[in-house]
Fold Glycosyltransferase.
Amino acid sequence: MERRPGQLTTRAGAAPAVCCPGLATSAALCPRSHYAAVGNRNPDALRCFPSLYLTFPMKPRVIIIYVYNSCDDPLFKGNLLLLLQHVGLQQPDLRLHLITYEQVEYALSPSQQQQRHQDFAHYHIYWHPLKWHSGRFKLVKKAYDLVMGIGLVLRLKLFSKARSIVSLGTISGSFAYLMARMFGLRYYGYQYEPHSEFMLDCRVWSENSLAYKGLHYLEKVSGMNADILSTGTEHMVQRLRSWGSQAQVYKLPSCVDEAKMQFRPAGRQRIRHQIGVAEDRPVILYLGKFGGIYYEREVATLFKAFLAERPDLFFLIVSPDAADYVQNLMTSEGLLPEQFAVTRSPYEQVPDYISAADFGVVAVPSFPSQRFRSPIKVGEYLCCGLPYLVCAGVSEDDRVAGQYNVGVVVSEFSTAEAARVWPGIQQLLAENKEQSRIRCREAGIAYRGLTQYLPIAEDIFAQL
């Protein structure tokens, strides 16, 4: 069943009844029965009266957080970690054992690792970094990663009495689901999406490949049999319902901490000075990767078409990909070196780069599977006051662009589509910047603001 901000779910057969003002609970509970229910960890009771955690000391609840990403990867750091930090403080009986797979591109020095351990401890998070393996013989290396994860999860089950396991995305989710069944753990899949279909649509995997078949099967099985799932779009909620999934299903998209992700005037000035661009020169930003499940050469094609409409444009590209590779993509399509800049940024400085721009681009192709995706980029752009371009059928980003007048929608990245939507982009660029930023930020908070979704995270973790 779906959870929306400010709404509680009920289990099958339970009659909703109002207990506290504004809350519909899964049983007819009054404040006294909230206290009586705390021993059974009624999630509505605990969310309604957080002080019960202090009034009735309880045994620690040990939960494994299984993430097939690096600790410093923005996909984790700017996403699931925000929720873990919140529930770690709100539910102090939680003990969150975080397993990550550390990649070279996000490598931390020993002192940085020590600092992470100290920072996490404040939220009752205990970090267990493993090493990520990739390259040749990928399936063998993924199997090795899985075996290492299984060993660590088993130790946490036996010696720390872990009772639940949480995953980020469906690749780590498939691993975590198998472990949950092996060791009798409750399983919560955060950000459930059909990643195998993304890879198939983008022609990274073929329909007959072992990687596609294996992940697609595990996605379906975990989607049907998980204890709890949360997903970013109404499209995925409806699909899970049509499957007859046994999981409790919540709508919980990739969220943006609106308190940190906002327009920074000083950041705009600093970045523009750094790349040598005057304040009045329009800057179009692309923030993200190239290739795979994103557009590659098509991004340069789009930029070239925009230059034909307005030659004074400047393109700021912030990407974890190698600078030489990105520069070659741009110059091979005829862009001159003085028309663009390529850099990368630590996550904490991303708002500065967004603030330096006047318009943003989301390079997710328009394929059928993309409506189930929940990329965080649009939320970050909007909360920093930046209008954007997106393909039709990507998450609910296309709907938001039109509903709030904060972006334009294309069917694909092509010269013809660039020319078609250019008048809309030009109008957004010409608008009063202050008014545009206010409207974009309001849309971003309404669409992906973190605060409105925190009660859902509290409710989910109270059940684990």
